[in-house]
Amino acid sequence: MDFQFTEDQVAIKGAVEDLCARFGEDYWKEKDAKAAYPEEFVDALQRAGWLSILIPEAYGGGGLGMVEAALVLETINRSGGTAVSAHAQMYTMGTVLRHGSEEQKRRYLPKIASGELRLQAFGVTEPDAGTDTTRIRTSAVRDGDEYVVNGGKIFTSRFQHSDMMLLLVRTTPYEAVRKKTDGISTLLVDLREARDQIEVRPIRTMQNHETNQLFFNDLRVPAENLIGEEGKGFRYILSGMNAERILTCSEMLGDGFWFVDKASKYASERVVFGRPIGMNQGVQFPIAQAYAQLEAAAVLRWKAAVMFDDGLQPAFEANAAKLLASQSSWAAANAAMDAFGGYGMTVEYGIERKFREARLPLVAPISNNLVLAYIGQNVLGMPKSY
Ligand SMILES: Cc1cc2nc3c(=O)[nH]c(=O)nc-3n(C[C@H](O)[C@H](O)[C@H](O)COP(=O)(O)OP(=O)(O)OC[C@H]3O[C@@H](n4cnc5c(N)ncnc54)[C@H](O)[C@@H]3O)c2cc1C
Q1: First CA to last CA across the chain, in angstroms?
Q2: What percent of the chain has pLDDT over 90?
Q3: What span, in angstroms and rounded, lies between the C-alpha atoms of 191 and 53?
Q4: C-alpha angle with apex 180: 179 to 182, nearest 5 degrees?
């Protein structure tokens, strides 16, 4: 086991820190206040090649691994930014890479790598299905060379800032399949052609996160945009989940370390009762506790990332790392909020912005209850609740 970064990895971290330094607290504060998409930041990330590092060099990407991708996302969030505005491309692209035809890969991946095409939207969640993805009802019916899509999605993020959307649909209804995970397919929707046929209702949330409800009414998608085999889409999405968990978990860790950095500095400087508040164990210990928890979660995340790069399926490691990262980041958020006292609530200090952002990972991209159910049932073999 080797827990040291290579020289190249250290250089990646440094380069991402330099890029992020151009987008300071005022930038993120303004975007948050206006509920605006951080277009300039996403452009800069794309131009520097960080969003395409997981795309193989043969398709114009960086050809690096999950460890490097995790490092990029963690560094963005530790610097005070939010990678959520751009992260989805890193894992949705994996569905095309692993399950798309050679023709699809050649058509899309080089353009995604160069930034000409953004594949940032991922439509899975539906209002009536919730976490039970097998219950999705958005249907795609074959009509000649096209699929005709009807139904709707909820919480589809970055739709308005994406050229392509990976869409999960039922090509066979739930009632007509023997195994509930069968009959689900994955379509790549070209929003440059289809956007006008989709009704969009933006959803305001407690953090600056462009997310939407979508309605499809006879949306026509070329049949050649089916990824892999019809009816096998659920498996394709599942195979990308480990990557999604490792990447989003890295952002949670970045947030958590940001809180610890801010809180420990503030607690060392703020003097009340004639001494730094950080001398008081009631202030110091929760920060230290959160830091220890974050480091432990980070080690599990590195294990998951290394296993992924070795071609293994780190389902337990990736899920457990997500669980622990979201919890330790939330603990760090609360420790920072307490340390900053009243100033934590003010917009000026930035703690309240990250605090709002740190709540989401307990629920999305997968709620922690479902992670615990996975560990309890699939890893430990206890009775299934669903
Ligand atoms: C800001 C934001 C952005 C998002 N972006 C996207 C996106 O881009 N694409 C996308 O497809 N989705 C997206 N989502 C959706 C997100 O993945 C879901 O909200 C999440 O998976 C939970 O689903 P739900 O909200 O329907 O909750 P529900 O499934 O209704 O669950 C509600 C609560 O019940 C609990 N629960 C349900 N079943 C069980 C059980 N069997 N055992 C124990 N507890 C249970 C859950 O843990 C949860 O706490 C986003 C959500 C948000 C808020």
Answers
A1: 38
A2: 95
A3: 24
A4: 70
Q: Please give the Cα distance from 275 to 196 (Å, whole number).
A: 61
Nearest CA to ligand 1 atom 4: 155
For residues 231 and 185, the answer to whether their CB atoms sit within 8 Å is yes
Per-residue confidence band for 251, with pLDDT thresholds at 50, 70 and 90: very high
Q: Which residues' Cβ are closer than 6 Å to ligand 1?
A: 122-125, 130-131, 155-157, 205, 209, 211, 360, 363-367, 369-370, 373, 385-386
Exposed / middle / buried, residue 102 (Cβ in 10 Å: 0-12, 13-18, 19+): exposed
The three-class DSSP label of residue 66 is helix
What is the pLDDT, as a whole number, of residue 62?
Answer: 96
Closest protein CA for atom 50 of ligand 1? 155
Going from the Cα of 155 to the center of ligand 1, the distance in angstroms, rounded, reads 9
Nearest CA to ligand 1 atom 43: 369
Average model confidence (pLDDT) across the chain: 96
CB 251 within 8 Å of CB 69: no
Ligand 1 center from residue 17 Cα (angstroms): 32
| Alpha carbons 256 and 287: distance in angstroms, whole number | 10
In this structure, are residues 23 and 40 in contact, taking their beta carbons and an 8 Å threshold?
yes
For atom 52 of ligand 1, the residue with the nearest CA is: 155
pTM of the model: 0.96
Q: Whose CA is nearest to atom 30 of ligand 1?
A: 130
pLDDT, tens digit (0-9, with 9 covering 90-100), for 96-137: 999 999 999 999 999 999 999 999 999 999 999 999 999 999
Contact of 160 with 200, CB cutoff 8 Å: yes
Q: Which DSSP string corresponds to 68-85?
A: HHHHHHHHHHHTT--GGG
pLDDT for the residue numbered 130: 94
**Which atom of ligand 1 is nearest to 373's Cα?**
42
| Structural domains in the chain plus CATH codes | 7-114 (1.10.540.10), 121-231 (2.40.110.10), 235-379 (1.20.140.10)
Atom number, ligand 1, closest to the C-alpha of residue 385: 41
Query: In the block, which residue shows the tokens 């392509």?
Result: 164
Protein residue with least CA distance to atom 14, ligand 1: 155
Ligand 1 centroid, distance to 245 Cα (angstroms): 14
